Amino acid sequence: MPTRISLELSDDGEVWLVRDEETGVATEGETRQHALEMLDDAVAAYNGAGHEPTEQELREVGIDPEQNTSGSLEDSKIFE
User: Fold this and answer.
1) What is the distance in angstroms between the CA of the first residue and the CA of the last residue of the chain?
2) Average pLDDT score over residue span 1-28
3) Would you say 30 and 23 are in contact if contact means Cβ atoms under 8 Å apart?
4) pLDDT for res 7
5) Is the overall model pTM greater than 0.85, yes or no?
6) In Å, how far are 3, 9, 16, 53, 54 from 35, measured between CA atoms?
7) Where is the segment annotated Disordered (predicted)?
8) C-alpha span between 68 and 52 (Å, rounded)
9) Domains and CATH numbers, the chain
10) Is 16 exposed, middle or buried (0-12, 13-18, 19+ CB in 10 A)?
11) Whole-angstrom distance, CA of residue 62 vs CA of residue 68
């Protein structure tokens, strides 16, 4: 089934706005290609893509796994 999206240049002409019509997920990018790539990532995240982060991955983004109060590792995802 084809994917329906809307893609338009912002009023100020600075960014491209893109929205997946099925999921309602929306994002933006500096170019059309970048906006479409960002939408692919956002829709994948919406659909639960990714994997449970390792303690090392959490440390690399500045999160101390021992002090993590935002949720368990099972509640976190790092998206590929």
Assistant:
1) 24
2) 93
3) no
4) 96
5) no
6) 15, 10, 6, 26, 29
7) 48-80
8) 14
9) 5-75 (3.30.160)
10) buried
11) 10
